Amino acid sequence: MTVEKLVEIIGADFYTGVPDSQLKALCNYLMHVYGIDSKHHIIAANEGNCAALAAGYHLATGKVPVVYMQNSGEGNIINPAASLLNDKVYAIPVIYIIGWRGEPGVHDEPQHIYQGEVTIKLLEDMDIKSFVIEKDTTEDELRKVMEDFKVLLAQGKNVAFVVKKGALSYDGKVEYKNEYTMIREEIIQHIVRISGEDPIISTTGKASRELFETREANGQGHKYDFLTVGSMGHASSIALGVAINKPQKKVWCLDGDGAALMHMGAMALVGTNAPENMIHIVINNSAHETVGGMPTVAGQIDLTAVAAACGYPNVICVDNFDDLDKELKAAKHRNSLSFIEVKCGLGARDDLGRPTTTPIENKNNFMQCIRE
Hints:
Blueprint: H1 3-10, E1 15-17, H2 24-33, E2 41-43, H3 47-61, E3 66-70, H4 74-85, E4 94-99, H5 110-125, E5 129-133, H6 139-154, E6 158-163, H7 184-195, E7 200-202, H8 206-218, E8 225-227, H9 235-245, E9 251-256, H10 257-262, H11 265-273, E10 278-284, E11 287-288, E12 294-295, H12 303-309, E13 314-318, H13 321-332, E14 338-343, H14 359-371
Parallel strand pairs: 1-2, 1-3, 3-4, 4-6, 5-6, 7-8, 7-9, 9-10, 10-14, 13-14
Antiparallel strand pairs: 11-12
């Protein structure tokens, strides 16, 4: 099924979402046609944010919006879907397009396995009628489903298209880039060299994969790192919990801009608690690179100003390795909470590996390490 045909059949003129690799064809199409034109397309901070944006759009126009996401985002929409959009509350119609990671029977990463198993059930529990789009789904099938969905939407209900791997295609090409030159994997190598044997909590996506690869290349083992392979946006809160309870250890949080934006309220909690032994690093390439490179708004805001406003006593932004090393060393030897934003280019190795340890092994090794 081509994205163009899907968009035509749905017939909406407003899309908001959080990018997903399973929906890369849709994301690239929206960026090619609309870019970041807020009247037609907004890449939001998290999926609950999308649901609320969709509600505002409907209130203003009376029309039906589309919210796209990876199935991991279903958790973020449960509250607005149940207490705002539902037909027993405000009856605000929304069409969801959901990438099905961890589909049963299809190999995927460990963080997607359980979410994949409950994807359809969660929609059913929220009274959201769904239809699964497969590689062989026909245009006629989709048109028939959409006619049925229109009846439900007219009643103020929500509906969902769940998209299997490879079910959507788009021939257009979109190039994502920024003006910065530092490469994330090299940034992580510098952090590892200076952090030494301090524990690191890293965010989901390629950052954790590159941290794992760096340890492999150094022959260090992986006991120093907690790889937050799922649960996007929560690495800094995990790090805060560790730092508060292990005050004798310097705790590093390796974060991304998309993740920091997703649950930015966590920064207020970190800054207010201000553990003296925590270093929060946000590698900012202004992109959801792990799922394709679609932009975030992090290139248009001042994250260091946000951190300072949240109470971080030491904030700095760097865009070169000399300054990075200087600030990493200063933060390591400082008995005060530090925030370092690192401006980063897009790009990763084509042969970038994935962790070869299981999440349970990672957790147990990390817990044993920080007890020592």
